[in-house]
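Per your request, structure below.
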């Protein structure tokens, strides 16, 4: 086990942070705008989000680099800023974390489909490799490849991320199938757990895609398929449209009620995804 993970797990469970996208929107980010551009244009509001989670008690905070590969940045005219966006993103979270929390830098999907021939495996590897190296250069303590639907893309990202020597968590999104236990591509919890374990992940998990209540069974099924620690970040319910606005209806207390069942099911790292906020992390902390 990676030394960083071992140290963290000596204080199991480990409290992670909550949503970034919805928090940045509260600070003025508009739908369709690049969240990552804020690392260069308005780092103060990015740091404020990280700080709000450190203050809430998160032992790990992520970074504003989810869309930090060249393929996502080029859609916003930032193709020549990949190194900067990621390095500075890690530096911002590190500043907020100080010696109170660790920073696991976020790497999300590229939006390119290997299966459709949008990119080759080598191109994908290079894109993730550039991002991972920049995040490491910015001082990240670990990397989290998250919200992945395509196991093949996740595995390529994992291989690139591991070259940094940092611990790597791979977190899939299960939002399909009658039991909400498959990725959009049809991969089951067990298939992903086994393949990611074999590919050398340090932690595996699931985030996004459904409300926190669904993650109890996901955590149990992951635990049964791997010896690795389990990372869980559920949503505050499914998004609903109310008067043209996206709202998440699960409250912080309702969310935190799942802390104990999640722990029992085998979750080691617990935090929140879309719709969660520092209030949710405070409620989780109290419950844990
Ligand atoms: Zn989410």
């Amino acid at each position: 086990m990676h030394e960083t993970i071992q140290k963290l797990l000596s204080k199991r469970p480990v409290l992670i942070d909550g949503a970034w996208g919805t928090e940045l929107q509260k600070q003025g980010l508009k739908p369709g705008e690049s969240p990552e551009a804020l690392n260069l244009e308005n780092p103060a509001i990015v740091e404020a989000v990280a700080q709000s989670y450190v203050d809430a008690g998160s032992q790990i905070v992520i970074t504003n680099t989810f869309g930090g590969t060249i393929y996502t940045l080029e859609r916003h005219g930032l193709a020549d800023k990949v190194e900067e966006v990621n390095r500075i993103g890690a530096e911002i979270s590190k500043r907020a974390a100080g010696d109170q929390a660790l920073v696991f830098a976020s790497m999300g999907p590229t939006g390119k489909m290997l299966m459709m021939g949008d990119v080759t495996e080598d191109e994908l590897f290079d894109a993730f490799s550039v991002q991972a190296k920049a995040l490491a250069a910015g001082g990240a303590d670990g990397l989290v490849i998250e919200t992945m639907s395509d196991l093949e893309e996740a595995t390529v990202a994992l291989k690139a991320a591991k070259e940094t020597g940092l611990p790597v968590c791979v977190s899939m999104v299960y939002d399909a199938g009658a039991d909400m236990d498959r990725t959009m591509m049809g991969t089951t919890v067990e298939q992903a757990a086994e393949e990611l374990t074999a590919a050398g992940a340090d932690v595996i998990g699931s985030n996004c895609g459904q409300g926190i209540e669904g993650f109890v069974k996901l955590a149990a099924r992951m635990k049964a398929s791997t010896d690795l620690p389990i990372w869980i970040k559920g949503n505050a319910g499914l998004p609903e449209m109310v008067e043209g606005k996206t709202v998440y209806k699960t409250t912080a207390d309702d969310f935190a009620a799942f802390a104990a069942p999640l722990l029992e099911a085998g979750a080691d790292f617990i935090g929140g995804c879309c719709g969660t906020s520092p209030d949710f992390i405070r409620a989780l902390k109290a419950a844990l």
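The longest strand covers residues 203-211.

Regards,
D.
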